[in-house]
Design goal:
The structure is a single chain. The protein is mainly α. It has a single domain, classed as Amino acid/polyamine transporter I. It contains 15 helices and no strands. It starts with a helix and ends with a helix.
């Protein structure tokens, strides 16, 4: 195997592993809410949107190097105000994701361990939040080692679920269209296809080879999208109207506790890798970008989502959808705007990305409408 091939596979695998996480477990619930026809349309459109954002972010990384993150890139190419907005959106997005990982991780642990250790889902969530937060205090090397083993287990468990669940698919479970909750998949699928945290690092993995860099982004994004969509449609085909927001309960009702336990273990591994990596990145953001002491950075990074959890924020679908559509949407909007500025400044002179600016403008409008709609829906729920 050539060096270029190894680099391509390494970067592609890193992106797939980053994308496939907690979001995949909400996808069956989103599919059940709108039917397979509309869900497939959402996947096609949102896969295209996220692929563009990954390529746009990569172009900015090529122009400056992988060490500068989104807030610094936005400040450099758009302006200081955009940098501050990008920084705030990034922090809020991390907090929202960490809150979702607390809620989902505790639920998965409850499914796996409750036959031997009886306790409420809230108690499992509380225990998981405390243990995970303590793990983030330790060095990046420890977190990376845990992440490596958890990712390997995650992939094995996912293929086991595909193997066991496929024979149980019932064609009568599939509805083509359902317009009762037609906007539900937007935030959930957008969340499930995001790989921003690793895009900049991928440039170093490929040795700054731009062709391999872009090829690995396209390949990794599409592979993750196919696996995520396949998982969503498969579970929906098995569970039908019994499909639940975290997937596991629905599988347990249809296929029994053994499959549900494996699914919950898969889910917990996905949550564990994502929580540890995201919390560590957020902690380092406070240390290096905001010059906060290490102890304060750790406390702020994990303390805010922990506090929101204790205050009662435990509706997983709402957390995921709002975080992705609003905070993630703002980040993606800035990334598309960043690409426009990089392109106009001709910051990449050798083999620039040849995506027309019109697609960047279309994605910006699309993301702005999605974020505004999610805010309006959430505000209406709070008022009424």
């Amino acid at each position: 195997m050539s060096v270029r091939t190894k680099r391509f596979l390494t970067a592609t695998t890193a992106l797939v592993g980053t994308i496939i996480g907690l979001g995949v477990f909400q996808v069956p619930f989103a599919v059940a809410g709108v039917g397979v026809g509309l869900a497939a349309a959402y996947f096609v459109v949102l896969t295209g949107v996220q692929l563009l954002q990954h390529l746009f972010y990569a172009e900015a990384a090529i122009a400056t190097g992988p060490q500068i993150r989104l807030p610094g890139l936005a400040a450099r190419f758009i302006g200081p105000r955009a940098g501050r907005v990008a920084g705030l959106a990034t922090i809020l997005s991390y907090w929202g994701a960490l809150l979702a990982y607390i809620v989902a991780g505790g639920s998965f642990l409850h499914t796996v361990l409750s036959p031997w250790l009886a306790a409420s889902p809230f108690a499992y969530r509380l225990a998981w939040a405390l243990v995970a937060s303590i793990a983030v205090w330790f060095s990046l090397e420890i977190v990376s080692e845990l992440d490596l083993w958890a990712t390997a287990g995650l992939v094995a468990a996912m293929f086991a679920i595909f193997f066991w669940a496929a024979p149980h698919v019932q064609l009568e479970n599939f509805r083509l269209l359902s317009f009762g909750n037609r906007f539900l998949p937007y935030g959930i699928i957008l969340f499930s296809l995001s790989g921003f945290p690793v895009v900049a690092e991928m440039q170093e993995m490929v040795g700054n080879d731009r062709r391999i860099y872009r090829a690995s982004i396209v390949t990794g994004t599409l592979i993750a999208a196919v696996l995520t969509a396949g998982f969503g449609f498969l579970v929906y085909g098995v569970c039908g109207v019994q499909t639940t927001v975290e997937t596991v309960t629905g599988l347990q009702a249809v296929m029994g506790p053994s499959v549900a336990t494996v699914a919950a273990l898969f889910g917990f591994l996905a949550v564990a890798t994502s929580f540890l990596a995201s919390a560590q990145n957020l902690k380092n953001t406070f240390i290096y970008d905001y010059r906060l002491p290490r102890s304060v950075s750790w406390l702020v990074a994990v303390g805010v989502p922990f506090g929101l959890f204790l205050l009662g924020a435990q509706d997983l679908a709402t957390i995921v959808s709002f975080t992705a559509a609003v905070f993630g949407g703002v980040q993606a909007f800035i990334i598309a705007w960043l690409y426009v500025r990089v392109k106009r400044a001709k910051a990449v002179t050798e083999s620039p990305l040849r995506v027309p600016l019109s697609l960047a403008y279309v994605s910006m409008a699309f993301l702005a409408v999605g974020a505004a709609y999610e805010v309006a829906v959430s505000a209406a729920h709070l008022i009424f």
